[in-house]
Amino acid sequence: MITLIAAAAENNALGKNNDLIWHLPDDFKRFKAITSGHYIIMGRKTFESFPKPLPNRTHVIITRQKNYNPENCIVVNSLEKAIEICPKDEDVFVIGGGEIYQQSIAIADKIELTRVHSTFEADTFFPEIDTAIWELAQEEFHAKDEKHLFDFSFQTYLKK
Predict the structure, then answer these.
(1) In sequence order, what DSSP letters do the residues of 53-75 get, joined into one string?
(2) Which of 32, 40, 68, 110 has its CA 20 to 30 A from that of 6?
């Protein structure tokens, strides 16, 4: 199963200047719990936004750059090749960025979205979720608190 996992604002904003716009510790915990032990597919800029590779996950990086070879990562030059090298009988997660989400939404089976209930200025966006194709299967609201500056909801979409 191919799952897109992201945190996006009401206006689908994902980030700006290769960084997240918000800090939501519960979203990080959920991301870690869902993706640990799995293959994660991402673009090069997303990979480079991490201080170091994420533990307990196999990183598959899509880039057009020749000779790009970060340690302990798989590097490919297309989404098709990224999916090809992932195990067919395991869950695979697409973790960004905007261009990779755009390319993969049509072939995804599931979307795990943290919807941040605000709008932000951004330069990277999550694709529009077409409700004719996707059905909201589960939603869990979280109010802002001392650790979270914004209300947010964990949403799970399944392809109809």
Answers:
(1) PPTTSEEEEE---TT---TT-EE
(2) 68
Kindly state the DSSP code that residue 89 receives in the 8-state scheme.
T
Contact residues for 111 (Cβ-Cβ < 8 A; gap 6+): 3, 4, 5, 6, 105, 129, 134, 155, 156, 157
Nearest to 11, CA basis, from 99, 113, 120? 120
- What would the two tokens of residue 56 be? 């307990």
CA dihedral 128, 49, 15, 134 (to 10 degrees): 20
Cα–Cα distances (Å) from 73 to 4, 33, 69, 88, in that order, read: 19, 20, 7, 19
pTM of the model: 0.96
Question: What pLDDT, in 10s, does the model give residues 42-76?
Answer: 999 999 999 999 999 999 999 999 999 999 999 99
Helix spans in the chain (H): 25-35, 44-48, 79-85, 98-104
Annotation: CATH topology of 19-159: Dihydrofolate Reductase, subunit A (3.40.430)
